[in-house]
Amino acid sequence: MTRYARLLLAYFKINFKSLAIYDFDFYFSIVGMMIQNLINVAALRFLYLLVPTIQGYTFTELLTTYAIASTSFAIFRCFFINTLNIADYVRKGKFDGLLVKPVNPLFQLLNESFDEDAWGDLAISVLILTTIAFSSHMPLLIFLLVLLMCCATSLIFLSLTLLGGMVSLLSQGLADLSETVYDFFEFSKYPLSIYNTPLKMILTWFLPLGWVAAIPQSTVIDDGRWYFAILVVGISVAFFTLVYQLWRLFLVKYQSTGT
Amino acid sequence: MTLRLMMIRIGLKRSVANRYAFGFYLFGNFISIAVMFFLWQSVLRHRPSAVFAETITYLIFMQLLTAVFPKTSFAIHDDIRTGNIARLLLRPVPLLTHYFWESVGYSFGKLIFIGIPDVILLVAVRQSALAWQTLPLLVMAVMLGYVLYFELEAIIGLFSFYTYSIWGINTFKAAVLLAVSGNVFPVNFYPAAVKTIAQFLPFQYAFGAIGKLLSQQQAADFWPTLFMQSLYIATLFGVYHLQLKIAIQRVVVQGG
Question: Which domain holds residue A18?
Fold first, then answer.
């Protein structure tokens, strides 16, 4: 464990140094992502200029769902984004390098690169969440639980990316489904009530995107049922564990491209 | 002409090589459309169904344009990073010509793989029939929008001469497009102030303004948009050349 912690620190140092090479672009991307996030909020506001509520959801409620989803997704992007590059690793033969080192391949993959602009996204998302918490007099315990849930549900996005990456392992890097996580994120930004019943079922029980923001918001925040946070964390961890076991199976079956 | 056709063919071949990626892009494209469908269905549930049909038609059309329009900034960025730019600058073909015709070929491939399913969806959702007499004008607006967007991408790509990375600048561009181009949020529903600002910027003329033309039946409604597109194309062409002239003095070939 200590060895992994030391490795993590070393990876962090290297990644931050590599970002500093493009200093101007690094800051530009952080600001750009912040603006993008704020514009998304403005777009939600524009919707409420057309109607007072959407499926019974007020602007603040919809904004809360959005802020939880984007915080969770920003955590995923800050720490797990390199899983999007599995196809690239396989094609260039870099994946073989991960497999021969005496460290967990997923750990290496996760830490070999950072997403520079996600930090701005995370800052704004947490800021929006904090503003909502203050304005709606959210109890501190609930707010902390929401942050904890965001950390846990980022594992759902990681799991979906790994599932997509497995297609790359199978096709020797020719096909890549991991980028679709960005599209799946779209589903998590809105309350489940806007979708039809089959889609609601899929988003709750098959691809657990409903657990990212919609369910935590309606249970933990709106109804104050704090114990649902345990369920949200549990489901996220269980989904990740399931996908991780599948990932290990795929690693055994993996054939190098020989690049 | 032969040279241009050759460059188009190169772009097309590149797109065929990426057909698997396009398949997954199409999957993502349909997810985005599904989310927009349900969201706008909830928002416009108390409005006449024609309003919803028009909105969703517009949004599918925007998805189509976003998919097909070029990503030249990344192509320029890659060439600068890998050192290929040195080879391209030595060729007896202007840089802009090379990127433009290759991207036309690539976009044509994308149109076949991603565009056709989107068009089928668009026709299925649209309640009113297309005004066939204005279709050539709509096609012209799309083509001008393509050129306009290509120029914007090329200008952004040239920043790589200074920064060697344009992810950040591209994120910034995406934010601006999100705000004022109308490619995600229908221009018709913008608040008055944003609508006014967007009217004076080039971004809307590559997306939202073209989308609005879908519902226009009179040829006269097309001319202001076509005029503004042409005006911006000429202006951005000048900006590109000026920027290239300055940027070229900073060229540092890093490898290759």
Answer: 2-253
Cα nearest neighbour of B168 on chain A: A29
Within a domain: B256 = no
Q: Do B38 and A195 touch (CB under 8 A)?
A: yes
B27 → chain A, closest CA residue: A180
Q: What is the DSSP letter of A195?
A: S
Is B159 domain-assigned? yes
**Average pLDDT taken over every residue of chain B:** 85
Closest Cβ opposite residue A51 in set B21, B34, B43: B43
- pLDDT higher than threshold 90 for residue A145: yes
How many angstroms away from the CA of B16 is the closest CA of chain A?
A: 13
The three-state secondary structure class of B253 is coil
Query: Of the candidates A102, A81, A105, A86, which has an alpha carbon nearest to the alpha carbon of residue A252?
Result: A105
The predicted model gives B158-176 an average pLDDT of 80
Is B32 within the bounds of a domain? yes
Would you say the ipTM is above 0.90? no
Q: What is the total count of domains within chain B?
A: 1
Decide if pLDDT at A70 tops 90: yes
Supply the pLDDT for residue A27.
78
**Closest chain B residue by Cα to residue A188:** B35
Distance from CA of residue A23 to its chain's centroid? 25
Interface test with A, best of B161, B167, B181, B188 (most A CBs within 10 A): B167
The answer to whether position A54 is within a domain reads yes
**Predicted pLDDT at A243:** 96
Q: Is A48 on the interface with B (CB under 8 A)?
A: no
CA-based angle A68:A30:B246, to the nearest 5? 150
> What are the angstrom distances between the C-alpha of B110 and each of A130, B12, B228?
42, 9, 27
Does a structural domain hold residue B144? yes
Task: Tell me which residue range forms the domain holding B246.
Answer: 2-250
Higher pLDDT, B127 or A231: A231
How large is the average pLDDT for residues A49-72?
90
Instruction: Give how many domains chain A has, as a whole number.
Output: 1
Residue A258 lies in a domain: no
